[in-house]
Specification:
The complex is a heterodimer of chains A (153) and B (267).
Chain A lengths: L2 E5 L2 E5 L7 H8 L18 E4 L2 E4 L12 E3 L12 H9 L8 H14 L5 H8 L10 H10 L5
Parallel strand pairs in A: 1-5
Antiparallel strand pairs in A: 1-2, 3-4, 3-5
Helix pairs in contact in A: 2-3, 2-5
Chain B lengths: L1 E3 L4 H10 L4 E3 L5 H7 L6 E4 L13 E3 L4 H7 L2 H8 L4 H6 L2 H7 L7 H7 L2 E6 L3 E6 H4 E3 L2 E2 L6 E6 L7 E7 L10 E8 L2 E7 L6 E2 L1 H8 L6 H14 L10 H21 L1
Parallel strand pairs in B: 1-3, 2-3
Antiparallel strand pairs in B: 4-9, 5-6, 5-9, 7-8, 10-11, 11-12, 12-13
Helix pairs in contact in B: 3-4, 9-10, 10-11
Chain lengths: 153, 267
């Protein structure tokens, strides 16, 4: 199949068979390995991307279903060398240990703040429920997100 | 591989009629797990992303293509509560009520609500048009339904009666991203309680004997509610598997049903 879609503002075409996951195509064919492959069943959230504005696990998106869609991966968040505010906050607060879940956390944070610039702690915890972090215990990730919330004092 | 992207329901049904082996794809949250982990290789897929006819939430019908994320915000109370507990935000943004029905897992979190309400499953095919199957005749076994090979699940048809109160809850090993060990809906319609549970039988079930006992009480006492819970535990038929044991599920079913009845009575 030939499937054309927009990734991080750039038009790309995949010649995958069609049944493969978007995640596999991102990593193996399009040289975008930021989205991580771990569980391949939607549990860990390390492969989280935005698909037409919706926060989804790219491992559960069939590439054949991506024709004409608009996809943002973690690689598309920074503006050149200027980090996205969520990336900067994760660095500043030490929200990263092994880093494997970080792309999913960062895309989730960017989506959360776009939808709701003033998330409460509960709303942040809810948003983070879809990305498993086995290192940090989430404490510093939560602090990074809280400092980005417009309601932070 | 063929991937069809029909623009409306007729096109989707025609595509299935032309390629009987084709599989329908909605949110992909079940289907892609098969591709990724079980080496499932579909030869023909019909994507439902653009089919408008299955996207509405109404008082008479909920379209099969409605995602959990939308049900969580815009739906009937009990179904919204159930939607809120499905997977994670990512899963809820993709997964649909129609997919939950089609997969027909005993643990499907949307299914007890359908059973409690006595809703129907709307199916459509190119050759025979639409039909509505009562939920009891639709779910026939573990991940088995009475859908015909050429049919698509197009919606849930809601009865005229509207619940006065409806409550959903589930028990799992943690609060987020968890498959139900037991799930339960209690609703009251025309003053009568209806109780449905999941993960405690091959299909979602109603506990009719426990309902009858409870409905014989005009104002159920603490003892009556406890007796109701015992009947629920007796009436379910759970198994022991990797997620829980028969004994725990039996106990949890009774506890959960009692808790939801108390919530309904307190409302």
């Amino acid at each position: 199949m030939s499937i054309t879609f927009s990734i991080n503002g750039e038009s790309r075409t995949s010649s995958a068979a069609g049944f493969e996951s978007l995640l596999r195509v991102l990593r193996d064919d399009l040289n975008l390995p930021g989205s991580k492959n771990a569980c391949e069943q939607g549990e860990c959230g390390s492969c989280t991307v935005l698909l037409d504005g919706a926060l989804v696990c790219s491992c559960l998106v069939m590439i054949g279903d991506c024709e004409g869609t608009d996809i943002t991966t973690v690689e598309g968040l920074a503006d050149g060398d200027v980090l996205h505010s969520v990336q900067a906050a994760m660095v500043a607060e030490g929200g990263v240990q092994c880093g494997f879940c970080t792309p999913g956390i960062v895309v989730t944070g960017a989506h959360l703040l776009e939808q709701n610039p003033n998330p409460s702690e509960d709303e942040i915890r809810e948003a983070l429920s879809g990305v498993l972090c086995r290192c940090t215990g989430y404490g510093r990730i939560l602090e990074a997100f809280e400092k980005l919330s417009g309601s932070y004092q | 591989m063929d991937f069809a992207s029909p623009r409306d329901l007729n096109e989707a049904l025609a595509a299935k009629s032309a390629a009987p082996d084709a599989v329908f794809l909605a949110g992909g949250t079940d289907l892609m797990v098969g591709v990724n982990l079980a080496h499932y290789r579909p030869v023909s897929v019909i994507g439902l992303r653009r089919v408008e006819e299955i996207q509405d939430i109404g008082t008479e019908r909920i379209g099969a293509g409605v995602t959990w994320a939308r049900l969580e915000k815009d739906s009937h109370r009990g179904l919204a509560q159930a939607a809120r507990t499905v997977g994670s935000p990512q899963i809820r943004a993709a997964g649909t009520i129609g997919g939950n029905i089609g997969t027909a897992s005993p643990a499907g979190d949307g299914l007890p609500w359908i059973a409690a309400l006595d809703a129907g499953i709307e199916l459509a095919s190119s050759d025979r048009g639409k039909r509505v199957v009562p939920w009891k005749d639709f779910f026939v076994g573990v991940k088995r339904t009475s859908i015909a090979p050429d049919e698509l699940i197009t919606g849930v048809v809601l009865p005229d009666e509207v619940p006065e109160i409806e409550e959903f809850a589930k028990i799992g090993v943690r609060r987020a991203m968890v498959i139900s060990t037991v799930n339960c809906v209690v609703m009251r319609i025309d003053g009568a309680f209806r109780v449905a549970l999941g993960s405690v039988a091959p299909t979602p079930i109603r506990v009719y004997e426990a309902e009858a006992m409870l409905n014989a009480e005009s104002s159920p006492s603490v003892e009556a509610i406890a007796e109701f819970g015992r009947l629920v535990s007796q009436e379910v038929s759970p198994i022991t598997d990797h997620r829980s044991t028969e004994a725990y599920r039996r106990h949890a079913a009774g506890v959960l049903a009692q808790r939801l009845v108390r919530r309904c009575l307190a409302a």
